[in-house]
């Protein structure tokens, strides 16, 4: 059992790191944060041309057909750079849902435009405090081909061209749902932007009123496909969080070497050493869980629910802790708009509530442990 990445994957990660270091520094993140554009369109075009969006998509649908773990190393670099791109909504969620539930025609029609970056898609599953997997409590329904209900928050919902929407049908069991394709520019759809802590990862509220909906694959069994989609997305988001946590630690360590107080570098003070050591320990724990989940993505689907939940929980805790402690390490400047550490805190909080948030994943971890104990 080898949890390490292959030399080819490490080279891809190196190239991704180099491009993002040159093209997506924190000034680029600020331009999106402070501007009107919802994401960096030029960077989106570049990553699409490099094939990043199609890394884990089979070749017959226009992708590169690489293992899903290859996308993990790219996700880590996207997280390290705080890249303001809709990769998560379009590829981790929508594209994965199509691969999990779509029929051959839908895969061949929809995936190439996502891989090329020509179209953007998203997954609309959550209904406010009701998580994406709380099927029995969701109110969205499909009747006679028309989908009605409200989904919030929807990642990149204002820029997406279409969405995979979870919804029930009359006479369908409460613990199941269907997945449906809905044109977000079509009739019966109303979108509203949400004010969020991290505008570089925007969210939307979408209201559907008898919007034309096409079933994604079979109308039944959507709950299982959605769970598989969320498990896979959780691993990729965990790598983004690990990358962001590592970047926050590196910036703090560098600042601690050069900032002087009482005639010496603050990194020589025990209080600062403890902060950095605690950040490093949590980051390494999150990384080990993420590596195990990446291995399960490719080699052990049976272990994926447990591995994904563990990776998600550890990564949420590590990134938020690193972001908060980095602000403290930077002192007064760390709490100002001019300082960059609030960019990491924003992203940590934004990713922390994505895909149900840590509380939902703790419940999934318990469920996975019970399944493993009784197997």
Please tell me about this protein's structure:
The chain has 375 residues and is an alpha+beta fold. The chain is built from eleven helices and ten strands. Strands 1-4-5-8 form a four-stranded mixed beta sheet. Strand 2 and strand 3 (146-155) form a beta hairpin. Helix 8 runs antiparallel to helix 9. The mean pLDDT is 92.
Q: Kindly state the mean pLDDT as a whole number?
A: 92
Neighbour order of strands in the largest sheet = 1-4-5-8
Structural class based on helices, strands and sheet pairing? alpha+beta
Q: If helices are DSSP runs of H or I spanning 4 or more residues, what is the number of helices? A: 11
Assembly type: single chain
First-to-last CA distance: 21 Å
Radius of gyration, whole Å: 21 Å
Low-pLDDT segments: none
Strand content: 5-15%
Largest sheet: 4 strands, mixed
The best one-word shape is: globular
Give the proportion of residues in helices.
40-55%
Strand segment count: 10
Order of helices and strands: HHHHHHEEEEEEEEHEEHHHH
């Amino acid at each position: 059992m080898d949890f390490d990445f292959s030399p080819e994957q490490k080279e891809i990660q190196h190239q991704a790191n180099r491009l993002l270091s040159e093209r997506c520094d924190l000034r680029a993140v600020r331009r999106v944060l402070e501007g009107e554009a919802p994401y960096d369109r030029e960077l989106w075009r570049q990553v699409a041309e490099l094939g990043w969006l199609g890394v884990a998509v089979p070749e017959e649908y226009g992708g590169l057909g690489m293992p899903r773990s290859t996308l993990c190393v790219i996700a880590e670099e996207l997280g390290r750079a705080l890249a303001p791109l809709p990769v998560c909504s379009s590829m981790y969620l929508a594209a994965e849902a199509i691969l999990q539930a779509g029929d051959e025609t839908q895969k061949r029609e929809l995936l190439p435009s996502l891989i090329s970056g020509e179209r953007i898609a998203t997954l609309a599953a959550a209904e406010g405090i009701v998580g994406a997997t709380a099927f029995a409590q969701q109110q969205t329904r499909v009747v006679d081909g028309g989908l009605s209900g409200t989904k919030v928050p929807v990642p990149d919902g204002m820029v997406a061209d279409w969405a995979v929407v979870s919804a029930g049908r009359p006479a369908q069991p409460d613990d199941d749902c269907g997945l449906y394709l809905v044109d977000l520019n079509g009739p019966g759809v109303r979108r509203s932007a949400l004010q969020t802590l991290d505008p570089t990862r925007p969210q939307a509220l979408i209201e559907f009123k008898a919007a034309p909906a096409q079933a994604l694959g079979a109308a039944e069994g959507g709950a299982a496909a959605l769970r598989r989609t969320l498990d896979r997305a959780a691993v990729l988001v965990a790598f983004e969080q690990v990358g962001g946590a590592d970047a926050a630690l590196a910036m703090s360590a560098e600042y601690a070497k050069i900032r002087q107080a009482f005639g010496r570098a603050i990194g020589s003070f025990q209080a600062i050493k403890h902060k950095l050591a605690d950040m490093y320990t949590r980051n390494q724990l999150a990384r080990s869980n993420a590596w195990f989940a990446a291995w399960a993505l490719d080699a052990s689907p049976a272990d994926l629910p447990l591995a994904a939940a563990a990776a998600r929980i550890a990564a949420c805790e590590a990134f938020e802790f690193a972001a908060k402690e980095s602000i403290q390490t930077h002192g007064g400047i760390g709490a100002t708009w001019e300082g960059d550490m609030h960019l990491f805190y924003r992203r940590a909080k934004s990713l922390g509530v994505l895909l149900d948030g840590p509380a939902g994943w703790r419940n999934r971890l318990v469920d996975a442990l019970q399944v493993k104990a009784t197997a």
